[in-house]
Amino acid sequence: MQVKNTNDSPTSVTLSFVANQADLAPIKKAAVQQLGATLKLPGFRPGKAPAAVIEKNLDQNVLQSEVIEEAINYAYTQAVSKDKLRPVSQPVVTVKKFVPFTLLEAEIKVAVVGKIVLPDYKKIKLAKPTVTINAADITDVLNSLKERAADKVNVERSAKNGDEVMIDFKGTDAKGQPVNGADGKDYPLVLGSNNFIPGFEENLIGLKPGAKKTFELKFPKDYGVKALASKAVTFAVIVNKVQELSQPKLDDEFAKKVGPFKTLKDLKDDIKTQLTMERQQASDRDYQNQLLEKITSKSTVDVPEVLIDEQLESAEREERQNLMYRGQTWEEHLKEEGITEEEHRQRERPNAGTRVKAGLVLSEISDQESLKVDPDELDQRILLLKSQYQDAAMQAELDKPENRRDVAMRILSEKTIGKLVDYATKK
């Protein structure tokens, strides 16, 4: 079977192939056997009739279609293996010519991962940051625990710092339209906790139960919800309740009440351990992302557009889901951003391209390092994930082939990043 590989672009190839009678004969034989396995013929048990008899009684259109399909699949698989192609799209097949069982000419177009040129990643260094926990960090946690354990007494006086107020609030924009994510009902807020945007809590100091107040504030430019960042919002607040907090004394008895601790020192030590673990995990994630970004920026990759499109669609689905949880529609979000759906997609396209490029770089390094995931390794991870779910249906989902593949890819990525960290920190 003759196969010719033509590069239409760095990320697209056309496979042209010609199969003659000798190439098609074994494929036809297998097709006749397969199709005849369930064919009922007088005087013969299913599948036991001679091949010539079976072929004569088969629908010739079905037989020809089967031979064409199998021949194309065979040629495609062989070409992908021989030329080390990495297809990322469904192949588009065009049959140019078919003389039943003597000649087949066809063309297959498919998007592929283009050339990947890696830097000498083993020599790329990046210092790991040191995680530290100071006394102020521990004090913050202790204060939070004290607030949660505090006795609350309703008061009729004006609210002051340290009090908890129960409020209804609603944010509107310059046109008087409600702002999603800027409202709440019977919301408990400790004044002075700085849990709300700057200026909000200060506006409530001095208000008594039943008081109403309207004021305008601007969300910080680095606010977590992009749609609200730098946005001017008018808040209408009703104070339903003012409560004086009587916080417990910070001593051994307090430690015993909040957990399995004998002394205040035990509680502080535990807080330090937990904070260190959390910050170390966050620091490690940031470090790994920075390292991969550094290696990716020094790599050259021909990224197929189809992969960028898939990444965009995936990110958009996640964004839509997050908006749904916040009670906002996709249309409302786009309106707040002041852009169309297409403009949103074009804005996010560079980020999607960067993420795809990083994934391809990581995959290439996995190959160069000959990293694999052992079946036992995968089984152990699946068991660990199953232990996190009580629902039998959710546990069964993990056994599906596509989900096992996803978990295997995650393990492989972890191994690869681990290798890169070793290289980057080795002196």
Your description of this structure?
Among the domains are: 111 residues, Alpha-Beta Plaits; 96 residues, Chitinase A, domain 3 (Roll); 56 residues, no CATH class. The model has no long low-confidence stretch (mean pLDDT 93). By secondary structure, it is an alpha+beta fold. The protein has twelve helices and eleven strands.
What descriptors fit this protein?
alpha+beta, 11 strands, 47% helix, 12 helices, Chitinase A, domain 3, Alpha-Beta Plaits, 427 residues, five-stranded antiparallel sheet
CATH topology of the domain at 2-112: Alpha-Beta Plaits
* Overall spatial form: elongated
Oligomeric form: single chain
Structural class: alpha+beta
**Sequence stretches where pLDDT stays below 50 over 5 or more residues:** none
Helix-strand pattern: EEHHHEEEHEEEEEHHEHHHHHH
Count of DSSP helices? 12
The biggest beta sheet reads: 5 strands, antiparallel
Please give the alpha-carbon distance between the first and last residues: 53 Å
| CATH H-level superfamily title of the domain at 2-112 | Trigger factor ribosome-binding domain
At the first level of CATH, the class of the domain at 2-112 is Alpha Beta
- The gyration radius over C-alpha positions equals 32 Å
Strand content: 15-25%
Fraction of residues in H or I helices: 40-55%
What would the average pLDDT be, to the nearest integer?
Answer: 93
For the secondary structure, the number of strands is: 11
Q: What is the CATH architecture annotation of the domain at 2-112?
A: 2-Layer Sandwich
